Structures are given as structure tokens and as C-alpha cells.
Amino acid sequence: MARKPGKPLRRWRRYIAALSVMFLLASAGWYWRDLQNFVPDEAEYPDQGIAVNESHGLVGFATVRALGGKFAYLEASRGSGGQDARFARNLDAARREGLMVGAVHIFDPCEKADGQSANFVTIVPRDEHFLPPAIALDNTAENCAGQVSDAAVESELMTFINQVEMHVGKPVILKLSPAFEDRYGIAGRIERDLWLVRDRFVPRYAGRPWLLWSANSALMSEASEQPVEWVVVQP
Predict the structure, then answer these.
(1) How many CB atoms lie within 10 A of CB 15?
(2) Which pLDDT does position 33 carry in this prediction?
(3) What is the β-pairing status of strands 212-219 and 228-233?
(4) pLDDT tens-digit series, residues 194-204
(5) What CATH code is assigned to 37-233?
(6) Quick one: three-class SS letters along the chain?
(7) Best CA proximity match to 228, nearest among 83, 79, 69
(8) pLDDT per residue as tens digits for the range 51-100
(9) What mean pLDDT is predicted for residues 102-129?
(10) What pTM was estimated for this model as a whole?
């Protein structure tokens, strides 16, 4: 007759299971702490900077400079009516510290291009010293009040791009989230430089090279009480 596992064997199994759980928790904790402070190697990516908005409050751009940041992308406008309350102050503060500055518009797929571009140009002046503006493409049209086709989203986005480029006098950059790209396939349809997002690991979801990479969406630093988005440029 086969012997049933005794109490010592059961205790060892529980002990090993507990050790496995502790190891997994410790590994997750290490990864989380490591990610909080992760920035790509400056030798590999010499040009680095941040992206911030009003939620970050008072940003220490001198600290950003000390951390190796050379530029700052500042949220300026959202859809047809939202504007970042700290855009002008952040712009002046970043420039005083010698950082190059660019503006970001949060594109709303539920709204027409005309209203969004009008909102953008009222807060972002035409200035040859600005970096190319970025259009953040994150939300899809799934939550719009009415049905908005994929073709309509692409059409309004292209109209908005043309209007913004006419205002600033330079091509825009498309800050493309994985969800937006998965839904609309914009990277293969609109030929503009890309800004991709993936914590710690080089992003490849666009299927073609990127110009900017948000390598850490929540970097803890003395530049702000809130985690900031750390961005690098393709060398």
C-alpha cells in the first residue's frame, strides 16, 4: 500500500510555497523601486528631457537641467476647450534655465479639428525657437457621445495636423499610445516623426523608428513633488 505524504512533507511544501510568494513580492518591489528611478544611459541617449503639465505643480527646471535634461515638453491644450493653467509659467521657467521647449496638444477624437486648432493657437504662439509641437494620441473614439468612424478620426486628425503646422511653421510629432495605434494604425498612414511610450523597454509597437521615447512615465525626482515623464531622443 502506498504511503500518504506525512506531515513533514506537507510542511516542506508549504514552506517552499511561502518562499516562492516572498520571492515574487520582493522581485516586484525591487522592480517598482528600480523603475521609479530609471533613466536610460546618457552615453546611449545624450539628449534627454521631461514632459509635464499642470498636475506637476511647481516644476524645478534647474533640477531638470542638473539631472541631464536638455528640453521640456509642456502640455498646452486639450481638445477644443481645455488649456493647461501652468503652460505660460512653465514656458518662461524652462527657458530661464536654458531648456529647449515644445508644446503638447491632447487630441480629442470626439471633436472637430477646427475647434481644437483654434484652442491650440490661442495659447501657443508662433515662435521659431519652439521645438516641433507634439500631438498626444491616446484616447480612441469608443467613448464619444455619438458614433465616430475610424475614417472620420483620421480625417480630422490630418486636418488638425495641417492647421497646426501652418501656424507653427514646422512638422508636428505624433505622440502615439499603443491603444491608439492598435485601433487606427496611424504610424503606417501618416508620415510624421513618432513619440512612443513604454516604461524601461524600447518600444516597437509602431512598426517603424521613433524620434522620442517616454522611457519612464513616473520618474521620481526632486524636480517635482509628483512623478514626471522622462523622455529621450533617438540618437
Answers:
(1) 10
(2) 56
(3) antiparallel
(4) 999 999 999 99
(5) 3.20.20.80
(6) CCCCCCHHHHHHHHHHHHHHHHHHHHHHHHHHHHHHCCCCCCCCCCCEEEEECHHHCCCCHHHHHHCCEEEEEEEEEECCCEECCCHHHHHHHHHHCCCEEEEEEECCCCCCHHHHHHHHHHHCCCCCCCCCCEEEECCCHHHCCCCCCHHHHHHHHHHHHHHHHHHHCCCCEEEECHHHHHHHCHHHCCCCEEEEECCCCCCCCCCCCCCEEEEEEEECCCCCCCCEEEEEECC
(7) 69
(8) 999 999 999 999 999 999 999 999 999 999 999 999 999 999 999 999 99
(9) 97
(10) 0.85
C-alpha cell at 204: 516597437
* Cα–Cα distance, 207 to 217 (Å, whole number): 21
- Beta-strand relationship, 212-219 and 69-78: unpaired
What pLDDT does 181 receive? 98
Range 216-223 contact pairs with CB under 8 angstroms and sequence separation of 24 or more: 216/35, 216/38, 216/39, 218/35, 218/36, 219/36, 219/37, 219/38, 219/39, 219/50, 220/36, 220/37, 221/63, 221/67, 222/60, 222/63, 223/50, 223/59, 223/60, 223/61, 223/63, 223/64, 223/67
Contact 218, 227 (CB under 8 A): yes
Domain boundaries along the sequence of the chain: 37-233
